[in-house]
Amino acid sequence: MNYQAPLRDMRFVLHELFDVAGHCRQLGIDLDRDTLDGILEEAARFTGEVVAPLNRNSDEQGCQLAGGEVTTPDGFRDAYRQYVAHGWASMTGPQAYGGQGLPQMASASFHEMLMAASLSFRIYSGLTEGAVLALHRHGSPALQQAYLAPMVSGEWAGTMCLTEPQAGTDLALLRTRAQPQVDGSYRITGSKIFISGGEQDLTDNIIHLVLARLPDAPAGVRGISLFLVPKLLPGGERNALGCGALEHKMGIKGASTCVMNFDGALGWLVGEANQGLACMFTMMNDARFQVGLQGLGIAEAAFQGGLAYARERLQSRALTGPVAADRPADPIIVHPDVRRMLLTQKALTEGCRMLAIYTARQLDLEHAAAGDQARQGAARRAALLIPIVKAFFTDVGQEVASLGVQLYGGHGYIREWGMEQLMRDSRITQLYEGTNGIQALDLVRRKLLGDGGAELNLLVDELALQVEAAGAGGGLHAMAAAVGQRLEEWRALAGHVVEACQHDPQEMGAVSVDFLAYSAYVLLAALWLQAAMRAEAALAGGSAETGFYRAKLHAAQFYWRRVLPRATAHREALLGGADCLMALPASDFAF
Ligand SMILES: Cc1cc2nc3c(=O)[nH]c(=O)nc-3n(C[C@H](O)[C@H](O)[C@H](O)COP(=O)(O)OP(=O)(O)OC[C@H]3O[C@@H](n4cnc5c(N)ncnc54)[C@H](O)[C@@H]3O)c2cc1C
C-alpha cells in the first residue's frame, strides 16, 4: 500500500479548528501558517517517498544480531541519515542544544506521518526524544553538556531501560544494581529485557537511561534511581554492556527489541538518588502521547489501504441494482456494510486526530504558557487526557487495522497487501509504555479520584459551552442536543465512579477500562460536533471545497448515529460494578 499523509485533514484540524499559528504567537514562537504548511508538505514527501517504502521489507527482513552487533533492515541506515541531515530529528529538541524547539502542536502531525509510514523506523528516534527530555529536565549540567547536542541532532540515539524479567508494570520489583565509585560515577550491573533500540547500526553511540538500585536504597519504588549509561564512553572505548539477544516478536520487526546486559558498566546519576521513577514520570505524558500517535498513524494507514481497495475491488451488485453496469460487478464500496467499516475507520481516525492536536496544545501550554496558573491548568488538563489518548488511540489503531484486514476479505490476511502487518505492528502499542489497562487505572485513580473529578468537570463545562453555540443556529440542533446530554451523563458517571471507589477500592480497577472508553467516545463526540460546525460555516460561507466539508458533515453524523452509542454499552458495563468480577475464587475459573 502507498501511504500519503492526509494533509488536507491535518490542515483542517491545525488551522481551522485549533488555530495553530495563533497558538505559536501566544507562545512567542515564530511559525506562521504558510511556514508550517511548507514543513508539513516536506514531511509528507519524506515520509511517503523515503520511509513508507521501507516498511514492508522491514517486516520481512527484521533485525539481525551477530557478534553483539545489530543490523537494521535494508534502507533504514540511509533513511535515518536523511532524517538527521534534513533536521527532522531535531524538530522538538531544546534550542540551547541545537534543536528547533517546535511546539508539539506543530510536530505532532509529522510524528503521526512517521508512525503511519513505518512504526519500526520511528521507534528509534522516538525513544531518543524521550531520553532527551529526561536528560534536559533532570541531568546535571556536565551530563547535558556532554550528551544533549548529539542526541538532539540525532547523531546519537537514546533508550529507556526499565523492564526486567520480573519487573514490568511493577517497577518496584526491579533488581539492577548501581555501585557508587570514588570519582562520583557508578557501576551498573543487571539485565534488562524488551529494550527498544538497545543496539542498532543507525548511530555511533547509544545513550541508555537505566533504572537501577543503589546499595542503601529503600525497598519499592522509592529506592529506584536513574542513570545515564553510554555504549561508548567519553574516551571512545566500549562500555561494559551489550545486547545478549533480540526478541522474536509479532510485529514492528524492523525495530530492534533487545535483551541488554550491563556488566559493571560505567554510568552517571541523572537527577536525585532514589528519585528515578519521579524523573521518568516527568516525561511520561510526552512518551504516552507519542504512543497515542502511533495508534493514530496506524489507523490512518489502514483507512487509506481499506479505502483504496474498496474503490477498486469488484464483487456483487449493489442492493438497489448495478452501479457500474459496464463492469462485471460493482466496486465493494457500494455495499452498506463496507461503508460501515470505512466510515468507522474514518470517523475514529479523524476524531482521534482532533483530540491529538487538542492534547498537543495542552502539552505545549503546560511547558511554555505565560504565567503559573495557565501552565498548571494546562498540566492538569493534559494529565487527564493523556491516559485516554494513549489507550483509546491505540485501541482504535488495532480496531481500524482489523477493519482494514476485513475490508480486503481473504486478501487482508495475505502479507503482500500490508493490512495484516498493520494489525501486527499496532498490537504492541496497547502494551508498552504502560498497558492500556494501566492507563485506565491511572485515569481513574490518579486523575479522577486525585481531584475528586474537578478537572473533568471543568472540561465538561468548557465543552458544554461549545455545544450551546452549536445548538443555537444552523442544522446541528439534534446532534448538539445529543452531545450535550452525553456530556452531562459523563459528569454524572464520573461522580458515580468517585463515590463507588470511596466505598470499595476494587471499583477502581473494575470500572476503569469502561470509564476510559466512555470518556473517549464522549470527547470525540464533542470534537466531531465542532468539526461539523466548522464545516457548516465553511459551506455557508461559499467555500469551493464542498466535497471536503460535506464529507466532514457526513462523518460527524455517522459518528453520532453509529459510533457514539458504544458509550452506552460501556456505561452499562461499568454500572455492573466490581462484585461480578471479584466474587469468583481464582481456583474456580475453570474445572
Ligand atoms: C516490543 C516491545 C518493546 C518494548 N520497549 C521497551 C523499552 O524500550 N523499554 C522498557 O523498559 N520496556 C519496554 N517494553 C516493555 C513494556 O513496557 C512492558 O512489557 C509493559 O510495561 C508490561 O509489562 P509486562 O510485560 O511485564 O507485563 P505485566 O506487568 O506482567 O502485566 C501482565 C498483565 O497484567 C496486567 N496488570 C499488571 N499489573 C496490574 C495492575 N496493578 N492492575 C491491573 N492489571 C495489571 C497488565 O495490564 C497485563 O495485562 C517493551 C515491550 C515490548 C514487547
Automatic annotation (TrEMBL):
Domain Acyl-CoA oxidase/dehydrogenase middle: 160-263
Family annotation (Pfam families): Acyl-CoA_dh_1, Acyl-CoA_dh_C, Acyl-CoA_dh_M, Acyl-CoA_dh_N
Keyword Electron transport: no
Domain Acyl-CoA dehydrogenase/oxidase C-terminal per the UniProt entry, residue ranges: 274-446
Record keyword Flavoprotein present: yes
The Acyl-CoA dehydrogenase/oxidase N-terminal domain, residue ranges: 39-155
Residues annotated as domain Acetyl-CoA dehydrogenase-like C-terminal: 466-585
Cofactor: FAD
SUPFAM superfamilies on file: Acyl-CoA dehydrogenase C-terminal domain-like (SSF47203), Acyl-CoA dehydrogenase NM domain-like (SSF56645)
TM helices/strands, residue ranges: none
PANTHER family registered for this protein in UniProt: ACYL-COA DEHYDROGENASE, BROAD-SPECIFICITY LINEAR ACYL-COA DEHYDROGENASE FADE5
Protein family per UniProt: Belongs to the acyl-CoA dehydrogenase family.
Name of the protein in its database record: Acyl-CoA dehydrogenase C-terminal domain-containing protein
